[in-house]
Request: fold
Amino acid sequence: MSLVEPTFSTTLEGQRFIAALAESTARVVQLEKEAIDQAGSAEEILSVHLERYRSLILAIAQVVWTLDPDGAMIERQPSWAAYTGQSFEDYRRWGWLEAVHPDDRARHAEVWARAVSAGAPYELEQRLRHRDGSYRDFSVRAVPVLAEDGSIREWAGIHTDITERKRTEQTWRDGERRFRELADSMPQIVWTAPPDGHFDYYNRRWYEFTGRPEGMSGDESWRDVVHPDDQEECLARWHGAIRSGDAYEIEYRLRHRSGSYHWFLRRALPVRDPAGRITRWFGTCTNIDGVKHKEEVLRRAKEETEAANRDLEAFSYSVAHDLRAPLRSIDGFSQAILDDNADQLDAQGISYLTRVRAAAQRMAQLIDALLSLASVSRAELRKERVDITHLARGIMDRLRETDPARGATVIVADGLTAEGDPKLLAAIMENLLGNAWKFTGQTPEAHIEVGATTKDGQAGFFVRDNGAGFDMAYADKLFGAFQRLHTNTEFPGTGIGLATVQRIVSRHGGRIWAQSELARGATFFFTLGSGATS
Reply:
């Protein structure tokens, strides 16, 4: 790729311009001499034509001059003097060379010698000193003016200021160099293409990775490097992007120079001019092979985990069924003994059988709690808008029915809603409100509150009570399965409830935490990710 456009003098238009300019310059010189040799009306006519040609020359150039056949300035050159500041004595004969940059004089002399020898026009670039002492770049063009016998009578030339063009070209070259240096320093493969999409530049990473020879362009430079299974889609999507002008992105495999294939993420963006036309495509190819391999490992691990969970689920239900049967027998026979033989048993015997029944019932509760905890992790989330206010008030009504003597004050804020799975959100509130009800059982003037909260800009909820509370030193143990801070005789339970709540909250993309003081109650806060209060 080249970011530098062809110079004016190398184009067909430039060549025509040079020829026309040379012809005009020669015509000016000829008319000047004819005007000197003639008088009267002819002189006036020639003078009009002369001024017209001079105006043309001055409009397109800064310095016009003539030299004798040997390259000497033998006549006054107003244009040359005006620009360089040299007097006639300074520039006459070969003194004009003093205005040419010292580093360019030898080359000028060489080109000039060849032109004189061949009697042909010549062209070169040189630096010319301005009257203020600064040098500017000029394009120098000269043609021989022939006498009637065909010999060279003189040379007519023109200096055209090309300083701005040279600066622009240098800017382009510097920009191209910086772009290449930047592209070569990047870890990604970098490429460019003109609007038609035929690739014309790759950075060093492309050649290092593919081992391709430099100089290839177009689709053939990369088509057979793409994995055969990816070629059709890759080409179709690239050509579609060229037609639509949209950004381009695809994952595909490229062949390494060793023959192995690596996954790459290929992106391209169009660069547009002020009119919105695409002037160029810039693209990158990022090696994502390591990421794809990790994704594959994770995918397989997920499949294996899901399979293991299915097996564990089946095992859990099987074990639960097998365990429930003997527990039911233990509980049933213990109750039968108590009913049928109570008059034959002493107090200790009755106590033993009562404790056996309680242990069997507690074991059944634990089995049910474990199955519930397992189902929370597996159940598919079905999110919808849930009325938390209505849900909480319904749960508290059921708790009051089980213990009508309790006079706890319950406050549930109006208008609480959340986005989540209705069954799982019900499990959260049942566990948290059940705990609040349980731990305020021995508290005079028990108070329970449900409301809205915010954490790190995310909406959430809280359940607060003024019950037994707990030491915050044990706060990190609250949400683990079977973690209990009180004995079963103080506050009965399975130790599964808060672990279930934590899993449900986590599945919703939220978090749960607690604040408490011993004998001063506890507050449980939770967010639900995308859930929100209203």
About this structure: The two ends are 60 Å apart (CA to CA). The domain at 380-527 is CATH 3.30.565.10 (Heat Shock Protein 90). The longest strand covers residues 135-146. The chain is about 45% helix and 20% strand.
